[in-house]
Amino acid sequence: MPSLEDELFPSTPGKFKIDRANTMNRQFHRCFASTSTMFLWALFLVALTASYLSFQSFVYTGSRYFTASWGGIQWEKQIRHSAQIHRSNGMSVLVTGAAGFVGSHVSLALKKRGDGVVGIDNFNNYYDPSLKRARKSLLNNQGIFIVEGDINDARLIAKLFDTVAFTHVMHLAAQAGVRYAMENPHSYVHSNIAGLVTLLEACKSANPQPSVVWASSSSVYGLNEKVPFSETDRTDQPASLYAATKKAGEEITHTYNHIYGLSITGLRFFTVYGPWGRPDMAYFSFTRNILQGKPITVYRGKDRADLARDFTFIDDIVKGCVGSLDTSGKSTGSGGKKRGPAPYRIFNLGNTSPVTVPTLVSILERHLKVKAKRKFCGYAWKR
Ligand SMILES: O=C(O)[C@H]1O[C@H](OP(=O)(O)OP(=O)(O)OC[C@H]2O[C@@H](n3ccc(=O)[nH]c3=O)[C@H](O)[C@@H]2O)[C@H](O)[C@@H](O)[C@H]1O
């Protein structure tokens, strides 16, 4: 059987039996009447391969490679449609991590008031991706398109900016979780540092440049003892790799603000909870274990002190995100060049009444009407 190559480019006549040589030669000459026709065929093949590759992007997500499909006229149409603004002075926002807990809520809030929203999410398996898929359906039903891809994919991000002149980027894609950093440190560097830089590179090169609002974390306060935390407190004692990558993000965004004139707002989230929340968080995993009669581990700090968190309800976080987008001010650069100073802001997004972990457990026991089996455990870090 002839190979595809034989079909498209028949071999030299010498490869065929003599009695067929003339026939084949004639066919060959009919097909490729001249070397220039042959060149055109080769060009066609190259173009075909290139266009195939533009639909395929091989992305390393930290734990595995996956093939993301994107591109094409239909895809671009969906992106543009999703980014359409339906109110005066509205914005078109690229939301990274749109299938995540905070990302899905912020996307819905923006869409509801008439802003254009395009999401991107890599649907990784840090926790059950079916929850992310369910959030995606929720967003799709409201006309929000989510691109399945990774923020480390520079070609994809550039393509998104080519397709839509986003006015804002709400950057919420990240490797979350404080304790998982000891299991999989590289996924934090991959998403929270490398991914952030890839995204900022695209933002800096975009024309017009978008304003960027992104999720930092209360964990940057690390070993600090003084409460409540103020934005001006020191943040140079991170107590986990997660915290260190978020702190690095604050420094990295500062650089892009300083060199390229990108408007940057970093939001330090304080232990966000609410509907569609993350199953890896304590309120969620405690509930599951209590209901299944399994023990829960309650961490303690120095001298067996109870740990406490400023649990913050998702609706308040959404208000903080949307308010930050509304007040972000413009980026000043264009074509990768700074034209003047741009805003650089950091805000705490938290409550002002920390709740201890044992209190959290008591609240859950009361509502679940089941007694928890507590196991107390020393803790190497505070946040
Ligand atoms: O605001 C943040 O910057 C971070 O918030 C969240 O981290 P945390 O505040 O650590 O939330 P969460 O796991 O719910 O633990 C809550 C409390 O339960 C304690 N805890 C936890 C688990 C356990 O098994 N036992 C336990 O005592 C634990 O020691 C803690 O005192 C996000 O996950 C993180 O991505 C980041 O956004």
TrEMBL record:
Annotated GO CC locations: Golgi cisterna membrane
Chief place of localization: Golgi
Subcellular location: Golgi apparatus, Golgi stack membrane
Keyword NAD in record: yes
UniProt EC number: 5.1.3.6
Name used for this protein in its record: UDP-glucuronate 4-epimerase
Family in the record: Belongs to the NAD(P)-dependent epimerase/dehydratase family.
Enzymatic class: isomerase
InterPro entries the record matches: Epimerase_deHydtase, NAD(P)-bd_dom_sf
Every NAD-dependent epimerase/dehydratase domain range: 93-327
Subunit composition and interactions: Homodimer.
Catalytic reaction list: UDP-alpha-D-glucuronate = UDP-alpha-D-galacturonate
Lipid bilayer topology: Multi-pass membrane protein
Listed Gene3D superfamilies: NAD(P)-binding Rossmann-like Domain
UniProt organism field: Salix udensis
Residue spans crossing the bilayer: 38-55
Alphabetized UniProt keyword annotations: Isomerase, Membrane, NAD, Transmembrane, Transmembrane helix
GO MF term list: UDP-glucuronate 4-epimerase activity
